[in-house]
Amino acid sequence: MNLGIVQMRCGADPDANLARGCDMVRDAARQGAKVICLPELFRSRYFCQVEDHKYFKLAEEIPGPSTAALGEIARECGVVIVAPLFERRAPGLYHNTAAILDADGSLLGKYRKMHIPDDPLFYEKFYFTPGDLGFLAWKTAHAPIGVCICWDQWYPEAARLTALRGAQILFYPTAIGWHPGERRQYGSQQHDAWETIQRGHAIANGCYVAVANRVGHEAPEGGGEGLDFWGQSFVAGPDGAVLARAGAEEEAILVCEIDLGLLEVQRTHWPFLRDRRVDAYEGLGQRMID
User: Fold this and answer.
1) Model's pTM, two decimal places?
2) What is the DSSP letter of 12?
3) Which residues are the active-site residues?
4) Is the domain defined by 2-274 classed in CATH 3.90.1170.50?
């Protein structure tokens, strides 16, 4: 089967971004993709560069207008769609969420981002309540998948628990980029670390990893350096090899053929799941072990 990754630029108009995302999903479906993932918070520019209450107006309920539009495409094209959205759960309660739309257009479930960063130009704790649904997997019409979001991608515990719930493909919708002032000195190593750890999740769990990032420069409305989103969305196989990668500057629709039958071979030849010492991991529930 084919996976589809949408790497897109996000502008100031949420409706235009939704329409653009829908067009790119349809294009991926025409190219044969059966499970298609959009980037994190694709309906807007990355507003978390500043703390401003006005951006709460971007949030929507799930199910809501975006899931309705994408669900219709899922039904028409017979594809599964991972749709990352700014969820309004209740007044004053918001999540960074991915909705999973099955190939019949139904809302199969949702994942709420568990790890919430608070770094310069990534002030997500101001907007998002940490997820409370746990790490999940869904048996979609085309494959068993799991979803984590951006900052989750640095945590091996998140990948492991998602894989243990049955995910054979782990999607990471993402909004990550360089601070322009740091790009020359640190850009290469920052990107290498980001890609390497996710390829490591594929190896450690014997699964496919698919990462959808946004691309382009985005600055806050009031001015500032902004962020250079580095694109380079990719798909890694269960041995960690990169099977497909988009560029760093342009929008892209990445369609990559995978073979879920290889997971049995990978997991029996490198039996990491078999040899886990589940009797000896009690310390993982502690912040530090003194």
Assistant:
1) 0.97
2) S
3) 40, 113, 150
4) no
CA dist., res. 60 & res. 75, Å (int): 22
The tens digit of pLDDT for each residue in 228-258 reads 999 999 999 999 999 999 999 999 999 999 9
Q: Pull the structure tokens for residue 27.
A: 């294009």
Q: Which residues lie below 8 Å from residue 105, measured CB to CB, with a gap of 6+? A: 71, 72, 74, 75, 76
The 10s digit of each residue's pLDDT in 105-148 is 999 999 999 999 999 999 999 999 999 999 999 999 999 999 99
DSSP for 91-160 reads TTEEEEEEEEE-TTS-EEEEEE-----EETTEEGGGT-PPP-S-S-EEE-SS-EEEE--GGGGG-HHHHH
> Who's near 279: CB < 8 A, 6+ residues apart?
none
pLDDT, tens digit, for every residue of 256-279?
Answer: 999 999 999 999 999 999 999 999
**Domain locations along the chain:** 2-274
Judge whether 153 and 205 are in contact, CB under 8 Å: no
